[in-house]
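Appendix B: complex inputs.
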Amino acid sequence: MSTEDYGAPSAAFAAFAAFGNSAAFAAFGGQAAFGMPENPVLAEALLRSRDGVVGNPLHIHDKVPALHENDVANLTLLSPDVRSSLWLSELGSRVAITAPKHKDGVKASLWKLAMMEEDIPRVETREVISMTRPSEQTFREQMKWVAGYADIRTDRAAEILSQVASPVPFYATISFLDPARTPFTLELLQAGLRFANFVEMQMKYILAVKRPIEYSPQVQPMIPTPNHGALPSGHATEAFLTARLLWKLLRASGQSPYSDNGYWGEMLMRTASRIAVNRTVAGVHFPVDSAAGSLLGLTLADLISSECQGNTEWTASKFIGTEFDWNSDFNWHALYDAEHDKQKRRSVWNSDDTQDEGLDEEDDVWAKEKEHVWAKTRIQRLEGPCITSKPLNWLWTKALAEWRDPNNGTKG
Amino acid sequence: MVMRWIETPPAINAPAHPPLDALLAARLQLHADRPETPDNAWWSVMLDLRDVSLEDLAAQLPAQDFLIPSVYSPVDRQAAQGRRLVAVFIRHKLLLELNETGRTLGIVAIKDGMIHPDDMIDLDARFVDPTPIQLDKKSVVMAVIDDGIAIANNVFRDGVCSSRVAFSWVMAAGRGHGESAPETIGRSFDKAKIDRYLTQHTYCDLLDEAAFYHETGQIDFQNGEFSPVSLRRSHGTHIAAVAAGHPMEEGLQTRPMICVSLPPRVTADTTGQSSFPAIALALQSLHHQASRFRIGDKPAPVVLNFSFGNYSGPHDGTGEIEALFQQFLDQAGAQVRQLVLPAGNGNLTQTHAEVTFPDDDRKTKTLTLQDPTDDRTATHIQMWMPRTQKAENFVTLSVCPPVGPTSPVLKTDGSGVLSYDLVDEQGMLARLSYSRAPDPIGRGLVTLTLAPNSSLTKNAPTAPAGQWTVAVTPDEIAPPNGAKGLFLPLNSVQVWVRRDETLPGFDPGGRQAQLDDRNYQRFGKYGLPLATDPMGTKSLVRRAGSLSGFACGASPIVIGGAIAKQLEVSPYSASGPITPVSEHADGTDPLTTRTGPNAVARADDSLILSGIISAGSHSGSFVRLSGTSVAAPGIARLLADELSDGLKPDLQKIAGGVTRTGQGFIPVNLHLTNLPYPILEPFGHVDP
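Resulting structure:
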């Protein structure tokens, strides 16, 4: 997926046009529906109209109240388009990406830049996620999976083609996403997706993993192969980011039935997994790409929700590519417990082994070294007050309110 | 490229010592040249044994090259009396020898299956004596053999983490995570193991089905096998759900299931050629599993649905597959066992012909075969001679390819040259051969095999695509002895083109060849496909007699398809009768009496809504599938209901039962007498 697909929140709304009766919401994509301002005929008409009515003298009102500075209340005056730039700035300015050398090559690392509240803000860096590249043999061996998955292309073709662009309609079948009903949730998701896209493109660039089509002329993907790197999978990143961010909202709403059990979360994650796997079916990704991408997406979702809520802790994670077993398929349950919205402390080859992994250890240290651990997480905490993003908090609060019943769910 | 006919090399073309199976000899010869088939490669084969036990046979063979699968109990291994059909694994080199010398060891016939990689065979697997299972009153065990049975679908569960499947054998599954397989090939799961996997992969009351099937080996994209359960619609799931699916919430305890998922490679080979050993193993396994179930001190009744079929075989009830089914039923002892099979879908496929030579028409007749282009699998035509005590030269045959020379004349009495090959510089393009199927079939068989006409392999021999003709000239064949009631005439040459389709999702690349005849009338006067042969047709190509080659035995219940809304038999639903065989020239005392399917059941909702809705692969999904495959399990379900109520399974009752239940099944007229030829007609009349 490229940023052009959803560079502005409008893309999410436009995706609803597919439903047929929501096409009007595509108007958010610009002001074309109002006939302004690109329409030269209208501009000429406005000129003439003003000439006809303007009169003289020009009255200047002397009691225009000024807006409050740096006030989130002003955000309501902005279009989603304009706000999207703010969201990206708020999220993007709080991270940095490095690519230090590592024993197995290069490690792509995403850091959180926490600005501590002092006279001259001091930046503290904390790791969010690091990723290293699997061995070349892993990709060669994983070609067996790519070849096997090709068998079900005809069965999945409609999904694969529909998921090339925004996958929001798939999540809208699970949670009641709707441009009129949940505009701020859609805006939050699009902010997250746009941020994730920039992160994943950096990760892809640094890790520089070739696509399946470059390992065999017989892959013959059913869609064009994107020319950015294979690992981490952008679709997996964005699919899991969307699913977890949405799930966090649903849980945080305290609204029954969302908060009663993990059904919605499980279903959102299944959908994310299917979107990720479909990219392997299509022939453009290895399963290990999805494993890396889903870890990135889950981690970014936690970071974004933390930023939005002004929290000082989040889940940090590591993807250790060389430890990934090439005989393994992608299995999201190895990474995440949807019911409790918790990433697994460590993920190993066999999903059985991930049950209750590391629970005996402190959650803010990396899980103990163990053979074949290809992913692990810890809770990252900041000491001391840091500057939080009030605009992001405003967006989160607005979005959260969309999942609560108007009557607070007291009826029935 | 210069094509020419030559005599087939002596290993196959040896009238004094013909191989047990010429086709097997050809396959072995073909594989011997391939580097991926070493001498020690394991083949699964089905042996037709006479008065020799598996143990005694094994004792005469090198132990390292002959493997008795774990489905055979010590008693099974020692049984020696009479005819026994058994599946075994034999290494390539020994199989070559046995195909030539097997007669001296009590082997009457060999049917080859598949090559199995060493790492897929568990040499240490041993028979496990199944423990008895007590069932509630009114219980009936539902058995299913199919491919891609999604055993974790909620319609086969009685709770979120509780399966109704008491036993499931996944033949193509790998060994799994260090777990020892009790089966020689694949892995089997009892209810406890299935429930454990259900528990392990259930989150928030929802089963992660992909993870479950990965655990059972039913979805494994890495191993090069196709995974039917990964598709939205899988044949086995749909069929099993029609037969035995129930809402999970009902918590039904009276329909435990036992099932076998055949390897996808077997399904992919629609000729059915490689299926015999797998079916033999499946039936033997289900025999032992079925024997476990008791209601009090009595065995629980069992209904087995097997919705597979093919176009080949003798079609007279004497073939190996019919014998195999009978063996399963005969092993029942006191247990009530019913076997339900589909009639087949070949009614309109133009894959069957009948050649007769009345007194006033003794000229050569020509069969025309259209071999479509881009067919990447072999095409086989079987031409069965009448049954006799010893071989007679009923007819002589010669073959003319679309381009190139006509073959020499092949006789059908086993004298002279038995087999001719059409060759070019690349190798064999076609083979015309004669062999005599041993008793109880006792009939001459001429096989025309065409190599694939398209290949992606460099220098692979490819047969010319297009119109092949077979000239059939009468010699000792008598004039047809009239149709006896609903039977076809004696003294005919019965022709079948083997099934050669590529099923949805599979990828063998086969395309179905068909027989053509200028007298074959495809459409009726309103443009609809004509489902019955017009009275007095002169066409050699026939619908009558198109019944599946699996469905010709006397004991199984054979079910055709019907369109519910129109109350008609589905046009594709294959029809009888089977080929009459008799020791007597006047046709008296026929060996079997099957005139066609026993009944029809819903296979299509209407002319527009083809197929019926049943379970998709994943829990909660429903899909549509058509064909007699989906009709058969409807009757299997009904039979189970009848048996559950303590009623004697009887097709007349079934018909009544259908009417009574009002569950969407169609009442059928089962009164077969006094109905005109052709045979589909009796089933065209359905009581409203």
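The mean pLDDT of chain A is 87.
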